[in-house]
Amino acid sequence: MANKKNSKNNQNNCPTNNNINIIQCNLDRSYNSYQELLQYLEDNSCDIALISEPYVGKALIIKTPPGYDVHQFPADDEHPMKAAIIINKTLGYTLGISQFSSTNLATMLIKIGNRNIYISSVYVEPNEDKNNTILKLERFIDCTKDSHRIIGGNFNGWHQVWGSPKANKRGIDVMNLIINKELTVCNIGEAPTFENITHGKLRQSIIDRTIATPNLSNQIHQWKVSGDVCTTSQHNAISYILALDHKPSRNKSQTTYKYNTNDVYWDIFTTQLTKGLEAAMLTNTDDIAAFGQTALDEYIDKITKTIQTTCKRLFPTKRKFPTRAPFWNDKLEQLKSQLFKIHHNISTNKSRGMPYEELQKEQGEKAKEYSAAIRQESTAHFRNFCSFQGKENVFSLTNRLLKCAPPRKPPATLYIDGKYTNNAQDTAAAIIQKFFPDNDRSEDNPTQEKNQTRLMQHPRYSKRPTLFGG
């Protein structure tokens, strides 16, 4: 077991390319903290967020932000999610690992070059590990053996190794896990990750941690505690960079909705398109029936280019839907900065042995003002949005507000027929076999037997791709 507490080289020698930006944060189940996190994700081009105690609302799961996927593993309809991973859709192939996940432990697999990296988000309750999360984490480590792993989250444990003044039972349990499994604590310095004022006294502790396998810990750079990410949470966020040997693959947008056609004058578009087709001499359709394959392909290609040229000239392109809350403005940003400054002054006064009671009162008042401003701006934005809805799209709006369809889930392993699949290919094959099983040839009638024989004798049959490696 190693500790990166005094490893300065890991902070400075960070490659500029092939990086994955990661943040860890306990959101205290706060709506305001969730909105602050979304703002941070967009402003800092964050790739992965390891979330503890997220805001879930009545749905008990995290609402998926635009441009991101959420790996979360609800157990039922009664217990809210306590750990999840938010990942940028552009990052590349990721797979949720259901067999090593629960409401308190979210695990995913990301493929970088020839390496598989497991990333886990963890939350363990402070008084009692009700869901046996540490035991499940130990099982996950045993099953993945020599794999690359990063584990981040809120363990609610103290230990001197990661900067706490003393150790408690939870901290000792976590430390034993780290030592027995030969992991590395990546926490650096003694900055608190939890701060709360109770009975007029400032309580600080280090209960959020980043743990990694030795083969990956030296690639974690610029690890730091950041108190200005979610100022409405009692927990300070942790940010760091995972520097890789290979550049991570980035998915390109697959959407076909390139143009914004909400306010288009279609009469003008029709006129301009007709002129374009006439200029390219594409309006005479009498000879189409006589075209061969090559001539027909060329004709279609010319029509397509003419349509694209007209659209590009007349239609505005769709903008990327922002991840941050649409109601966020400079006023809220200023209040957030003021709240963080007061928080910083309280910590400074405490470390210097100076009084901070007046600052505590100011912090409480500013926090109430900040929360009230968020609610006010959110409500005003929604009312303004509703006022602009016309009759033609009122049903579309209603359907979006009241939709009860489950959110789209990113790929994950599946428990089926008494066992878990191992990858996306196994999952697809298992689903096909479950719902579209192989035919029982003994029940075929003569016509079916004849057709099946002809199919198997066809030259293309033996070359077709399969999900089973055949």
TrEMBL record:
<feature type="domain" description="Endonuclease/exonuclease/phosphatase">
    <location>
        <begin position="117"/>
        <end position="238"/>
    </location>
</feature>
<dbReference type="GO" id="GO:0003824">
    <property type="term" value="F:catalytic activity"/>
</dbReference>
<dbReference type="InterPro" id="IPR005135">
    <property type="entry name" value="Endo/exonuclease/phosphatase"/>
</dbReference>
<dbReference type="Pfam" id="PF14529">
    <property type="entry name" value="Exo_endo_phos_2"/>
</dbReference>
<feature type="region of interest" description="Disordered">
    <location>
        <begin position="437"/>
        <end position="470"/>
    </location>
</feature>
<protein>
    <recommendedName>
        <fullName>Endonuclease/exonuclease/phosphatase domain-containing protein</fullName>
    </recommendedName>
</protein>
